[in-house]
Amino acid sequence: MTQQIGRYKILQEIGRGAMGVVFKGRDPLIGRAVAVKTITSGVAESADLLERFYRQARAAASSDHLLMRVTRVV
Fold first, then answer.
1. Which domain holds residue 21?
2. What does the alpha-carbon distance between residue 56 and residue 53 come to, in Å, rounded to a whole number?
3. The whole model's pTM is what?
4. pLDDT in tens, 31-50
């Protein structure tokens, strides 16, 4: 059974930290591998930690790196 988060098919866990879990996934719309980061419930319940999570997401989205592209923050 394949897990899914939104439109992303989850293939495996690739990392875990204080703020959440990162999964290797596949975006069927564009046909390529993606990284999907989820947040822990503790982060979701803390306004300060949630803002930190979004700040990191915005920083990653503004990056212009050949190996990393942020296509969507949900």
1. 3-62
2. 5
3. 0.73
4. 988 888 888 888 888 999 98
